[in-house]
Amino acid sequence: MGLFTKCLFELIGTFVLILLGDGVVACTTLKKSKGLGGGWAVITLGWGFAVMCGVFIAGPYSGAHLNPAVTLGLAAAGQFLWSEVLPYIAAQMIGGFLGATAVYLFYKDHFDATEEADAKLGVFCTMPAIDNKWRNFFCETLATWLLVFVILAFSTKENVVLGMGSLGAFPVTCLIMAIGMSLGGATGYAINPARDLAPRIAHAILPIAGKRDSGWAYSWVPVCGPLLGGVLAALCFTVIY
Questions:
Q1: 5 SS3 class
Q2: By three-state DSSP, how is residue 119 classified?
Q3: Are residues 162 and 50 in contact, defined by beta-carbon separation less than 8 angstroms?
Q4: With contact defined as beta carbons under 8 Å apart, do 79 and 155 qualify?
Q5: Domain count, the chain
Q6: How far apart are CA 20 and CA 23, in angstroms?
Q7: Measured distance CA(40)–CA(25) in Å, rounded
Q8: Where are the alpha helices (DSSP H) in the chain?
Q9: How far apart are CA 236 and CA 163, in angstroms?
Q10: What pLDDT, in 10s, does the model give residues 96-121?
């Protein structure tokens, strides 16, 4: 499989991930949406299924990282080529930007009907429930550590024998839901720079009526935290397994 093909499927998989993931936030938070008020459970379920769809699309061709933290973690664990890390991340970021743009176009009338600028920003990216950046950084690091560590655990020989590895997207779907339901309350569980930074850039560029600033003072947290968490997970996995 050529690198271009793998990156193309990373782009498409991440596009679908963000289209459905940001889409469920738009559906449950923007005014006059039929899903308004769906709540946190719907959002976490929606994000889990969004990951599942992205994995089904990209898995056979690229491995379906769909997340720079996963790509970096797999490389640090010796399970991915370092020479392909930057092309994968570039593809994921482009897919994330395009997915967020598609959500804006889909829900344009509802963005216009929504007065709360924070709600509009929340469709695209995460912001903390309580602004304590170093605590928020710790939360994102730990949540992403858990994500990457468990993904690496899925790949072990014992789990493949038990059938976990062969199920592919299903255990990762459950993992995303579990992280969201248990660890999502503090920061909104970005756990993925392509899920947060790329849509944040889209928010900054798109002509969204009545929008606020794009939260750049916080934007380093859901990028640096997940990247650190991915590398720490790889180091822990290498030592333990």
A1: helix
A2: helix
A3: no
A4: yes
A5: 1
A6: 5
A7: 9
A8: 3-29, 40-62, 68-76, 85-106, 108-113, 117-124, 133-154, 157-162, 169-183, 193-205, 221-240
A9: 23
A10: 999 999 999 999 999 999 999 999 99
For residue 163, the model assigns a pLDDT of 43
Rounded to whole angstroms, the Cα distance separating 165 from 13 reads 19
Alpha-carbon gap, residue 47 to 173, rounded angstroms: 8
Is pTM, for the whole model, over 0.85? yes
Contacts for 22 with CB less than 8 Å, ≥ 6 apart = 99, 100, 103, 123, 124, 199
166 falls in which pLDDT band (50, 70, 90)?
A: very low
Question: What integer pLDDT is reported at residue 1 of this predicted model?
Answer: 79
CATH number, domain of 192, equals: 1.20.1080.10
Q: Which domain holds residue 173?
A: 3-240
- Residue 25 pLDDT more than 60? yes
- Token code pair at residue 233: 């997970």
Q: Both tokens of residue 90?
A: 């570039």
Tokens 């395009």 correspond to what residue? 98
